[in-house]
Fold this protein.
Amino acid sequence: MYVNNDTELGGNGLYILKGLEIVKTISLACVGPLLYNPSNKFVYVSNHDSNTVSVINGNTNRVIAIVSVGSAPMGLAYDPSNQVVYVANFYSSNVSVIRGTKLVMAIEVGGYPSSATYDPSNKCVYVGRIGSVSVINGTTDKVIANVKGAASDIPGNVIFDPANKDMYFDSCNTNRCFIFDINSTTNKVVTKVSVSTYHYYPDIPDIAFDPTNMDIYFSLWDGYGDGYVGVLSPSNTLVTTVSLPYNYYPSDVIYNPSNAFIYVSDNGHASASVISS
């Protein structure tokens, strides 16, 4: 397992775990999100401050290439149909395309892209930006649609729901957060769900899909130090929120298929919460 020591703020090391033991640390510059490519068994790591992506050989756990991309690379997505990796570059407002260890091209999307997700049902890549989502055709590498969310100062996340083959995108403003259900056939918003009310500068750092109950879990915190994990049902209804201690800043959310638990990292206390789904 590969673990970034600070996905939100950018740490400087990548930990390699076997079970519960750290077996190796790789020193990298301002580590961001990472992605595994099953076709070549490489691990791709975005380096936010150095405008690069490090490529690690998964067999040897050695850095084999450093690829220069756009300014402030963040989210990554793998397209298995053409075996390329897409990199959202926040400040250069484009998406870099990497094949193996080589930069292939850059696609202009505008508006501070921060996340990327591949949709296997239509072979498109959805790129989360501030207040909207750009849709890239994976065959032509052209932007074919831009889907508007709420007016936002915070970049949103994008996740694919294999149960209904829709994309979900979050968008927050100064006091509210919303999650949008995007039909991947029409690339239109079909549902807008308010998931917070009158919080002070709220943010949704991450969202995850749980295939056991078809729910979507999202982390949320605000400027007052309040934080919780919300649960969105398959009918796009906010069914519950899991309260967290004060000054707990929930960040990454991941589903563990081996035990059907949801794991939520805490940026403020270097810990994690475990939720039974």
Notes: The mean pLDDT is 88.
